[in-house]
Amino acid sequence: MSQHPSEPSPILFFDTINAHQRTAALKAAIDLDLFTAIGKGNATAQSIAQSCAASERGVRILCDYLTVIGFLTKEDGRYELTPDSSMFLDRRSPAYVGGATEFLLSPLLTDGFKDIAAAVRKGGTVMKDAGTVTPENPVWVDFARGMAPLIGMPAQLMAQLVIGESKQKMKVLDIAAGHGLFGIAFAQANPNAEVVAQDWQQVLEVAQENARAAGVSERFTTLPGSAFEVEFGTGFDVILLTNFLHHFDAPTCEELLRKVHAALGEGGRAVTLEFVPNEDRVSPPGAAMFSLVMLGSTPSGDAYTFSEFESMFRNAGFSHSEFHPLPPTMEQVVISQK
């Protein structure tokens, strides 16, 4: 039996052009602490409104909208959190990510998407200076504080992938460390690992806070400054490049990777965490769409395919690179051998 194609529809157009409303509704719910109120047992619009110090009409409309887009459920006039909302949007959860809006919705990031047509014409961000890669950009302090709850799991998964059960002495350099959680995960997994975190000084202060909280501060030192300018030192067993290379064009990445290669000891490995699209560059969706983020926020960044990473690392002197998915995250790991 033949299948007939569906009739053309403008639904995708309207869903996409109005997508800003989804963002605004979710931010409003986070600002009102609505998810936490429902998590505490407030189930009706009236009780949620009282908990959130808001109008009953406004809460009812917002909760209905959040139900339609999948953040809440509703039955007999009573609202409940979905499992995802309970895990990530109830402020009492250790995995709460509501603070990430400080980074993800910062004007320092969103301004780059006000005129994508101009960015397409130019081939890069139209924000002033170099966009998010401007030296000592304060947006990275927001990133370090706001995105940390999302990083714990991938950081632990990556440490397990790279070092397994090894307890051998290990020297780790975490480039553009941000919150420091990737290097911290290595220190937690291996009591004989010593970590050097490199980033701008204000960002490293957040990383140091996290290292103290994790109980690894005695094996966690910092290296403030630009990754392209500071001296890394030598003899590292592992150098971490997490969500960093996508900010730059391939020649700039290769410049940094030659420096990484020189800082590694014999048999050392560079471990890269990135959004890596397939060779068709349109799948999987999360990784493939990340290229637009780089177009809007950087002069020349991109979401690189594995073959492009292979070429960069090979040109920088590495012998070979391996590709590793990191489920359930949207990102992938590239391990490159000196």
Structure description:
This protein is of the alpha/beta class and 338 residues long. The mean pLDDT is 95. The strands form 2 sheets. The chain has a 7-stranded mixed sheet with strand order 5-4-3-6-7-9-8, sandwiched between helices. Strands 1-2 form a two-stranded antiparallel ribbon. It has helices at residues 11-17, 19-32, 34-39, 45-52, 56-68, 83-88, 101-104, 107-110, 116-122, 139-146, 148-163, 181-189, 201-214, 250-263, 285-297, 306-315, and strands spanning 72-75, 78-81, 170-175, 193-199, 220-224, 236-242, 264-274, 320-325, 332-337. Helix 10 runs parallel beside helix 13 (201-214), helix 11 (148-163) crosses helix 12 (181-189) and helix 14 packs across helix 16. It has 16 helices and 9 strands. The longest helix is centred in the middle third of the chain and has 16 residues, at 148-163. The chain is globular and about 65 Å long. The chain folds into 2 domains: 11-96, Arc Repressor Mutant, subunit A; 120-337, Vaccinia Virus protein VP39 (Rossmann fold, 3-Layer(aba) Sandwich). 45% of the residues lie in helices and 17% in strands.
What's the SSE blueprint?
Layout lengths: L10 H7 L1 H14 L1 H6 L5 H8 L3 H13 L3 E4 L2 E4 L1 H6 L12 H4 L2 H4 L5 H7 L16 H8 L1 H16 L6 E6 L5 H9 L3 E7 L1 H14 L5 E5 L11 E7 L7 H14 E11 L10 H13 L8 H10 L4 E6 L6 E6 L1
Parallel strand pairs: 3-4, 3-6, 4-5, 6-7
Antiparallel strand pairs: 1-2, 7-9, 8-9
Helix pairs in contact: 2-5, 4-5, 10-13, 11-12, 14-16
Binned, the helix content reads 40-55%
Widest beta sheet: strand line-up:
5-4-3-6-7-9-8
Oligomer: single chain
Tell me the radius of gyration.
22 Å
CATH topology (level 3) name of the largest domain: Rossmann fold
CATH class of the largest domain: Alpha Beta
Individual helix count: 16
Low-confidence stretches: none
- CATH H level of the largest domain: which superfamily? Vaccinia Virus protein VP39
> CA-to-CA gap between the ends?
57 Å
Main β-sheet description: 7 strands, mixed
Q: Give the tally of structural domains.
A: 2
- Backbone structural class: alpha/beta
| Topology pattern, helix = H, strand = E | HHHHHEEHHHHHHEHEHEEHEHHEE
Averaging pLDDT over every residue, what do you get?
95
Strand content: 15-25%
- Indicate the overall shape: globular
